[in-house]
């Protein structure tokens, strides 16, 4: 099984700016080929920008050659080379719009479709340990050369098992985007409610802690990156984490993951489970927000799935109200005083209630993720800003 964690960790790890990892089931490689390429249509329904103000970029790793690179305007894949960097030190990988839409073709690859408005993004080809690699924009890093450019992206993998794609707020939120995948059926996700972008910005601006994550009208930075930037307290979740460990020192919890049930209780300062699962040390706020560190999820079929459930439960703050995880009732999410308001705002503004607010937000299908084993086309739409 390929996961979003292994996909990003393998194909994008060579990028000089770190890409957060999560748990995203991308399908099993080795089945009959569903599509060797896929036509993509990009539509501008932003209501804010003309097509002439917009650019898009398709970047990632070619699954046939294992080379990092980009898709050219004619739909062909080009492996990255240091010579792609121009006189300014950056590679122009942009594809312009034609009127209010654009088209291209995806080869079998794992990567991202980026969008920018008003200016081009500054990608850079770097030496990735003997092989050229792409340095991606990092909108959460103030010194990044694309920091002042309005931009966002969707993630995808097209392989022999089909097309797997999602909108994402794991790093940040900036441009409202939706994806429609056609194949065995038509599926759409990522669409925000009318005024959804303003709703997200307003909800976070109203909170004295989360308001610091709002960067003018450009974007909202995810709180994990906020810690790195000195904009978010690294002890934010401490009261909740302490309460959880105190609760489960006195009673057990049950976690169902990967078709198995595990019982756990705090012992010796760690959350210890049966069933061959590794024990979990008390996580930090950063561990919770990145679903990493003490909550790191190895691809072992046992500890990894339990870690994913715990990561989701900490972010959704359901561990005090229920001793059985995962909790399937979305109405029970984010109800504690200390909770992930960033993720809460993303879900509240979404038409279908789905969003990728943190790395394991796909637990119980709450992420803006769709797949098709026999895809025929993909449409990505820049939806209304207001």
List keywords for this structure.
2 domains, 386 residues, disordered N terminus, Thaumatin, 8-stranded antiparallel sheet, 5-stranded mixed sheet, single chain, Metal Transport, Frataxin, Chain A, alpha+beta, globular
Describe the protein's architecture and organization.
The protein is an alpha+beta fold and 386 residues long. The chain has two domains: 2-204 and 348-382, Thaumatin (Sandwich); 238-337, Beta-1,3-glucanase, C-terminal domain (Metal Transport, Frataxin, Chain A), CATH 3.30.920.50. It is built from seven helices and 25 strands. Strand 12 (150-159) and strand 13 form a beta hairpin. It starts with a strand and ends with a strand.
| Whole-number total of structural domains | 2
Low-confidence stretches: 1-32
Averaged pLDDT: 92
* SSE-based structural type: alpha+beta
The first-level CATH class of the largest domain is given as: Mainly Beta
Our measurement of the CA-to-CA distance between the termini, rounded to an integer number of angstroms, reads 39 Å
User: Looking at the structure, what is the overall shape?
Assistant: globular
Radius of gyration: 20 Å
Indicate the CATH architecture of the largest domain.
Sandwich
